[in-house]
Each structure stands twice: as C-alpha cells, then as structure tokens.
Fold these 4 entries.
Entry 1:
Amino acid sequence: MLLKVSKKTRYEPAKKSLFGFRGFDRAGKQKVGSTSKQADRADHVWYIDTLLESARNGEIDVLTSSLSIVECVSVKDPTKESAGREFFAGLLESGKSGIKLIQPTSAIQLKARDLRWFSELSLKGFDSVHAASALIFRCDELLTLDKDFFNNADKLQNMGLQVLKPGATKCLPEHRRQQSLLE
C-alpha cells in the first residue's frame, strides 16, 4: 500500500498531503525479515502512525488508491493472518484511520498508462496507478519502501513528486517532530 502526503490537494490547498505506505506490517517488520532492518522499519512505523494521527487531526492529508484494499491481503507471519486482515480492513475501510481512498478514475488510469508510455517510468500496473493518483492529486510526497519507485524517483521528482521512505517525510508537522524527541 502506498500513501501520499501533500500540502496542496484539491480539497484543502493549505494542507500537506502524502500518498501511500508500502511493504509494512503492523509491527514494522520488513517482509524479507532481516533483523538489522527491523529497527529501521520500526522507525518508519513511528512516522506512519504519527502521520496518520496528523491526518485524523486535519493537519495533513494522507491518501492512497483504493487499489490498496486489493494489495493488502496478507502478512508475512501466517499465525498473524487473522489479525492482519482485521488491521488492513480497519486501516483502509473504516474511514477512521486518517487515510482518504482515491478511486482509480479514467483520468488516473490514462495518466498511469501515459507514465509508462511517454514518461518511460518502469512501474508495474498498480504502481503506475499509485503514481498517477499522487500526481493528479498534486501530492508532495509518495512514501514507500518499494525499490521500483526509488528506481524511478528522479523522473517522478521532475514531475513534482518526491519519493521517500516514511522516516524521511518533510510533511510531518513540526510540533509532531518535536514529540519524537520527547519519547
């Protein structure tokens, strides 16, 4: 799942807005399972939780494509499958998490195709839709850990969209960053 954050969405131009988090489970563990990266993931999860809290408080917009509902269907640890399903459903379907779902309209689908055809982005189908959604909604950042997005980061940056890991976000309100120093 990807999240976009941006300060200039169509709905509330004064806010920052993000698009999509990808490759996380609730504990912040990496799908590949390297222990050295688990601490890094936990740090990213703190940022995600804090960004979502900021979104719930109306300080920023956090958006993702409704395709994320289809993409977020399993967790790495089969013993946590039931809890994972409940978590993803609550996160994406409850309307209470702070995430606004974007429907893949015809304009978004055409933009996704054109990103591949004319901008030569090497993203898979759903990832192209995520990128197109973030661009059409004029998000400032696309937060992900997906290497395919980082391989295309320069091209997306030239289109006005930064690709970042969650811990590198610049959209987190300053008073929230100060909280991290106190914890």
Note: The chain has eight helices and six strands.
Entry 2:
Amino acid sequence: MVYPHVQYQGPAYPDALHDSTATEPRELDSRVSDGIHVGLLWHPADGHLSVAVHDGKTGESFELTVGEDDRPRDVFIHPYAYAARRRAGSGPAADVTVGVRAAV
C-alpha cells in the first residue's frame, strides 16, 4: 500500500546510528535471583563477551571473560561454576576479575 501523504524524514533516532558510546559494553541478557544480578555483556571494541556477577547482599562482584572454547549461555547460566574452575587452575585465572563494590 502506498501512502502519498507520508514523506520519509530519515531515521527516527539518528543519534543511535552514530552512537559515541560504541566502546561501552552492551548487555545482551540479564537475570536476578535472590539478590544476585548476572549480566551477559558484549564488548563492541574488540568483540569479546563477558559475564558480570554482582551480589547485592554482600556487595561482592566478579566478571568472567567468555573464552573461545566456552559456550556463552552456559557461562551466563553457571557463572560460579566457571569462576571456580578457573580459580582451580583448569582455565585462565586471569580471566576472572573480582571486586567489591559499595552497596548502592
């Protein structure tokens, strides 16, 4: 169907096409359970994926880089198992970033 009275004015959100924050991670998925927030992040600067975990009760947090041999969805669903495996030495321990954040 043709609408002769409607003229194209360009994209609805032109700033979104030229976003200056293209280097900031984007959250692809997230979930919260019992105060624990888990997020699957994509880093467009280099294309890697990571899983960030924050415990709202204790204020502890860590981030896991998803390796080439890892399944991103599995790391997202079982982040504590992947963190334990990497700390035990069967994975790259440098890929686990641990921190404590102040409660908000």
Note: The CA atoms of residues 84 and 90 lie 9 Å apart.
Entry 3:
Amino acid sequence: MTSTTYQVTGMTCDHCVRAVTQELGNVPGVTAVSVALVPGGESAVTVTGDGSLATEAIEAALDEAGDYRLAGAAGSAEGSAAGPMTPAAARALPLG
C-alpha cells in the first residue's frame, strides 16, 4: 500500500469532503481517502492505493468533484493503510 497526502484548495465544508472522497474513491487502485478539512485554506487529503497513483488521475477526480485544485503533494508513506497523518480534524470515510 502507498499513501500520499495532497494539499487541496477550494474545500469549505463537509459536503466538499464527501464530494472529494467519493470522486477520489472512484479512481482505480484507490482503497482509502482521509481528509483534514481546513475551510477556505489548503486541506490535507490522504489517498491510499494499491500502488502509485497518477497525479493526473487525482487532479481529474478533484475537478469532477467540484472546484477543487491540487496545491501539491505534502508527503507519501509506503506500507501504511491509514496514511501518514491522523489529526482530530481528519475525516476518514469508507469507500464502496
């Protein structure tokens, strides 16, 4: 498993979290998505997958979810199903 945390702009509420989580969950190979919402700022979105995920696929899913943009990758961790961050603000939503 590989987890990568992206900084995403445009998220303001729980609806945004659900939309982003759903669309990223539709990307082939994605097994989990966790969001630490920072309303109006850069939210940390951790995507866990079976292998390396193309940045273009992540950007396309964010665009499909709404007016959300990738600000950059904050970090990645190999072998972690939960992702590299676990702040109290993180919202882990089940996929499927």
Note: The chain has one domain: 2-79.
Entry 4:
Amino acid sequence: MTGAGNNIPFYEMFHIDGGNFTNAGSISSQVKKILMRAGFSHGVIRRTSIATFEAEMNVICYANRGNISLFITSDSLKIVVEDEGVGIPDVNLAMKEGYSTASEKIHELGFGAGMGLSNIKNHTDGMILTSKIGQGTHLEFVISLEGKDKEKVAPLFAARG
C-alpha cells in the first residue's frame, strides 16, 4: 500500500460520475476490499462500507461528479467526499431522517428515502458536512480505530520505510 504524508500510511482517491447508476456501489466495494486485505475487523469494515456507500450514492444521485478519498491514519479511517453539483440548500434539514429532495427517477430506482446522511452520521464517530449552492458539497467522516484495528496500521507505516 502506498502512503501520502507523514502521518498517513495509506491514501487512495476514487472518481464518481454523477448519474452513473450502473457502477453504483463499486467504490464502497473497493474500499471494503482494501480494508479486508489490511485485516481490519468486521465492525470497522461494515461501518466504513455503509457510510461510504451512502456518500457514493449521494454523489451519483445529486451531483455532476465527485471524488471519494480514503485515508488510513494511525488511529482512524477518514473518508473525504467532494462533489460538484447543486449543493444542499439546508444542511440541517438534509440531516433529518426521511427528508429527501430526490427526483421521481431516483425514487423509481429505489433510492432517495432520505436516510443517507443520517446513516452516515449513525455509522461513524464524527462527521462534517458543508455545502455551497451551485457549487457542491464537502463531507468528511471518521471511523476511530482501537485495539487490534489500531495494530493493523503499524505495518502500513513500516512498509513506507
């Protein structure tokens, strides 16, 4: 695994095309495979995969394009999502379970139930969401590592040499 920065033994960025439902879930699956290969616990993998999938789907449903970045640090997994799109007019309202601005098309595809952002919040240890109308949205969330999961990071630092 490759590193980026002094305190980040692993970093990878993934591109998302807005509206591309054909590949929906592929990035969260790639993140899951990375974490499985690294030997993280089922709980950490599950929480990260759920939150990453929800973020990925939000970009696909609401933005023109975006990027998801995975950072593995000595004590956490951090996901950063940046998109170019319409933006979120009211972030507080968007955080309420069941609130959705999804189009009829998105609902017909089985998405847009208004649970994505609250699922991210519920499955992570910290979340920051900012948005600018007409520009896009920036989301960061963190999964804290403890015990055996924290030990999995040490070989990543050693591999950087």
Note: The chain has one domain: 10-160.
